[in-house]
Amino acid sequence: MIDSHYEWQVLADSVTDEEQALATTLNMPTVMIQLLKQRGLTSRTEIEAFLNPSPEEINDPFMLHDMERVIDRINEALMNGEHITIYGDYDTDGITSTAIMYETLMMLDADVDFYVPNRFTDGYGPNKDVYQRLITQGTQLIITVDNGVAGHAAIDFANEQGADVIVTDHHEIPSELPAAYAIIHPQHPASEYPYKYLSGVGVAFKVATALLEEIPQEMMDLVALGEIADLVALTGENRVLVTYGLKMLAQTTRPGLQALMELAGVGLHEVTAEQVAFGITPRLNAIGRLQSAQIGVELLVTQDPERASDLAQQVNQLNDTRKQIVAEIVTQAKEQLAELDLTTQKTIILAGDGWHEGVLGIVASQVVELTHRPTIILTQENNKLKGSARSIDGFDLYQALAPHAELFSAFGGHAGAAGLSLATDNLAALKKAFEHEADVQNVQLGMKAPLTIAKEISVTAVNEQLFAAIQKLAPFGNSNEQPYFKITGNVSDIKQIGADKKHLKFNLMTNESKLAALAFGQGELGDGLLIDKAPVSVVATLSENTWQGQTSLQLMVKDIQQGGLAIIDQRTNKLRPDNFKITGQYVFFNPKVMQQLLPYLNAESTAIAITNGDQLVDNGTTILVDLPKDLSDLTLLQGHQFKELRVIFYTAQHVYLESLPTKADFAKLYKYILGHADLPIRAELPKLAKFLQIGVNQLSLMITVFFELGFVRIESGVLNVLPNPKHADLTTAPSYQAWITKQAIEKSLIYSKTSELTTTLTDLMS
């Protein structure tokens, strides 16, 4: 059995008469009507407007509060030759916002530069020390992009110094606004702007449009990057901006973007929101996670191809470094997780010495994905802890942590994410408080994260027509997610692919058709998939794969579920403590092996000695530790229902790869023994094996055969020939037969492919 990681929630059921009628009217597949209905679109007018985004939906920028005041102030600065500084942010939304505002003012011949705060030295948003430095250097007007709405102290300082600050932002409005010269925000309390969900780059783009008195289409590639990266709702005006922005991105003339897209493998002829989200955004975000993001803005605005190529290489290398750092911290985090009792613990707080603070949010997200628990990841340095928190649905991080402000030297965030700093001495209190708040908010252990599934369809229903129809819903993103489908079939051609076999590739099939499926990060499930034994259900999106000029459909698998028994292959010839971390019942066929390994089992696990007649327990994890003496020993598994069956099948001595001794080998040994009385066989065994040119294990077997058949006697490790032994067939000796049996068992249970082992065990159990 393979259990799903998520709680599947299928939305659409059978087609209603109303849906069928609308599908006929619009000449669409009924599944499309259901997908549109799930997006709140039920009328022909709404559907046609959604499927055909129009530039007419781009709102007048002067509908934003303070826009006229902003344009007048910037024009005044232009006429007076004032020095303007664009004050940005270090993520992709901030970088693209900075680039748009900078390019716009450069087009107007402004005396302008830009400053992107450093995550590690400046922090997020307006910084008083930086403002002081900028003003001292001659800045008279500061324009924030993607920040500023909560920057009271720094803005007050700028006002005292006679410098004006224009805030353009989209983050949550505080109860009291800063005393800026003007504030452009789609959710400003005095604003009548009809669309509230612009990102920072969207707001900067509105200012650029107002300044230039036309929509600067050449900047829409940057708008698409920032909006997709910031996970704003891809509805309404954002949907229009991103739709046209992706078209501009596919034909961008920016040398830096061209170079970065080539390195990221993002096609220039057609660019999707998914390619941006997984190919470009991580690279741009990596800059600010590891160093100053100034080069990110330069990458986007430079017109020098050589400089652009150099910057793109730097950015790509930073992303590779970021991935390596994340992987190392996640490995260490998993080691800490293994020490926790997740059967009772509702929250997770992990801390490590010197963990890179720029990637802790990514690590926290991965731990949440693994455990489905609110998580805080901290790095420790000089008796101080600093880190990031990520949450699950139904748990408000801000509400959980804000009441414990006395524990923090710095704290900020919202329901889903937060950043915090504290003294190391407060860590124990934080763990206690975090767990208490989980009880207050009624976090339930064992609950899976929900996964919304648009519809259950058959393998045969997946075709080019369906794929083409679904693409009309793009661009996909927040509030317009790519639809997941539940599809069931049998599996074949299972392969674990990629570095360290991390990914899983297989075919999902019925009698009528077959679909390729790819599951990133789920390679470990390959050992448990039962080929042709039980139907497999997957939750997946539809995708296209082009290889050697041929394009075919494939499933991008998010989750897998299979009935029946999951058999996990953990065979090894060297036991390690890691083999015994899983809680379950450990089955031993050799009591001596059990006694040796008992200290390695955790307190919740049990040891089952088959020779003692111990009884197996159903519905848990069962681990077969050592090798049985006979395949029939495995019939003990019959009639039992386990959550999963893990097999180690350890044996200290492998015989499968060693050939049985021949009659000539036996004759050579017997002749030697006849000529050497009182042979100290224990001490001389390796030397004798070398002299006779026979393997040590083979020699040991031959001596045992002679002993069992009465050809020799062994007393105190000394071997002598017995006089007048009875004739006997060497192959009838018990040890000889046991060798043959062990070879057969090893062939079947150790030296077989995982799929062959799975078949053997399921056949034995049934």
UniProtKB/TrEMBL annotation:
Domain (Single-stranded-DNA-specific exonuclease RecJ C-terminal) ranges: 567-758
Keyword annotations of the record: Exonuclease, Hydrolase, Nuclease
Ranges that cross the membrane: none
Matches recorded under InterPro entries: DDH_dom, DHH_sf, DHHA1_dom, RecJ, RecJ_C, RecJ_OB, SSDNA_exonuclease_RecJ
Domain DDH as annotated: residue spans: 83-226
Domain DHHA1 stretches: 347-436
Residues covered by the RecJ OB domain: 456-559
Family, similarity comment: Belongs to the RecJ family.
Protein's name according to its UniProt entry: Single-stranded-DNA-specific exonuclease RecJ
